[in-house]
Every structure is written in structure tokens, then in C-alpha cells.
Amino acid sequence: MNANSFNLNALVKFLGRDDWALQFEEVMGDHFWPVMDEFGLDHEGIGEVLGTHWAMTLWGCAFEDFLTQTFEPDGRTFVDIYLKSRGFKETARSKTYLKAISASVISLYEVSEVVPGKSFLARDLLRGGDPIMISEGTATLTLRQWEKIAARIVQIGDTNVITGGLLPYSMEASEALFEGLKEFSGKKRSRKKLILDDDTLRLAAPLFTHAWLFDTLPKVLGDNPPLVCNSDGDDIVFHEVRFPLEADITENDIADRFAGRDDLR
């Protein structure tokens, strides 16, 4: 079982009602506005740079965050309201999945024991605890041992599955996320291992999108400094060497010596 076996088209269509447009745009803004301002890109521009797959994945991250939001006057989620209005069209399994998403939190996980097409173990790096078995088909074809991923894990019956918004994290993105979460949670000066509760992670969901995009976009756009290598492919290391000079040697004496060596530049 995996998230791809659940069809959310009816839920997305229900989102198209005018009275939900503003709330959803606010959540989308939380996820994307800081990045758009930094790189001068709109949603369409980000999609063009990253491609359809990642554009849809990022949209899914924001959408799943939106599904966890509660709204006044009764504190219900969008899922609660959808199921009350259209729940009769959903299967019992789909209802369970939707309710699980609305109560979910995103976290950073370390992947291990990947069985392609079947499962992997996920260790929560932000809430602690032992690794848990995740039933997953598609993502396990590309996941690597000890890779870090941002994801939501929900339990359907006796099975743990990931939802659609999965982002692979580099070491740099992981470090940036940790720093952002420390500042967000007020634990920036703490020397203890960062452990966060569910309520904090729910509020911090946009930071996961920010960390991934601020790491990925410069690489795609070519904003990273180029690697400088010699003809053998070895990295060039810039350094300074000092030589002692005899007394009464002037700069002109040194320049004359260098000028006579054609092999020096």
C-alpha cells in the first residue's frame, strides 16, 4: 500500500470552491513567498525551473499542510468539512487516509534497509524513537541507504505509509532545516539534541519547503560557484608561500629575475 493508491481528485475539486481559495492561498504563500522573493520567481517559474514532478510534489507538500489546518468557528479541518459534505462518495479506507493526513505532521527521516518495490525503515530525526517500517512501492525504487527525506507518515490499519509530498534532502538542506527549526522553536542556543513535539512541527511545515528550495534552486539555476580544477581533474588549492630575501634586495631586482623566466606566470 502507498499514497499513490488513494485518489484525492474529489478532495482537490472540492478545494476549488470560492470560499476556500483565500485560505489555501495563504498556506501556499507561507511555503513559497520567501523563496519567490529571493529568486524572483513566481509559482509558474519555479515549476518551469524544477520540472513537473517537483512542482507537483511541492504543491502536494503545501496542500497536505493545508489539510492539517483548523478553521473557526468550530476548529474543523478542510478534511472534516469535505467528509461531512461528500464523504458518502469515499470508501472507508479513503476516509481513514484523509483523516490520517489531517492529523499528520511532516518530519525529517533517515532511510535504511530499503527493499525496492516493497518497504524501508524510517528513523525520525526530529522526534526521536526507533525506526519504523514503511510500506512503499514507488519511492523505494530511488531511495538510498541513509538518505534523509522530509515526509508525512500515516498509519492505515496496521500499515505505515508515506503521503505524496516526499522531498529528498541533501546534507546541506538538512543542516539548514535544523538551524531554521532551532530558531523557530527558540532552541537556537541549546546544546541538547533537537527534539520537537507535533504541535511545533505542524506550525513549522513551511520551513521544510524553504530548506529544500533554497538548497535545490541555486543548483538548478547555476548559482553555485564553479569547481576549479587543473588539467588532471584535481582541485586547485590557492595558497601563499613566503621566501626570505637577502639584505639590500629591491622589488626591481625581484621583478628582473622573474622577467627572465618564461615558465613563470
What does this 3D model show about the protein?
It is a single chain. With 265 residues, the protein is α+β, with helices and mostly antiparallel strands. It has one domain. The chain has ten helices and eight strands. The protein has helices at 9-15, 18-39, 43-50, 52-68, 78-86, 92-102, 171-185, 198-203, 205-221, 251-259, and strands at residues 70-71, 76-77, 106-115, 119-124, 132-135, 148-156, 159-162, 167-169. The strands form two sheets. Strands 3, 4, 5, 6, 7 and 8 form a six-stranded antiparallel beta sheet that branches. Strand 1 and strand 2 form a beta hairpin. It is elongated and about 95 Å long. The relative contact order is 0.12. The mean pLDDT is 87.
Q: Tell me, what's the shape?
A: elongated
Mean pLDDT: 87
pLDDT < 50 stretches: none
H/E element sequence: HHHHEEHHEEEEEEHHHH
Q: Using DSSP, what is the number of strands?
A: 8
Count of all domains = 1
Helix-strand blueprint:
Layout: H1 9-15, H2 18-39, H3 43-50, H4 52-68, E1 70-71, E2 76-77, H5 78-86, H6 92-102, E3 106-115, E4 119-124, E5 132-135, E6 148-156, E7 159-162, E8 167-169, H7 171-185, H8 198-203, H9 205-221, H10 251-259
Q: What's this, in brief?
A:
The protein is of the alpha+beta class and 265 residues long. The chain contains ten helices and eight strands.
Which features does this protein show?
single chain, 265 residues, alpha+beta, six-stranded antiparallel beta sheet, 8 strands, 46% helix, elongated
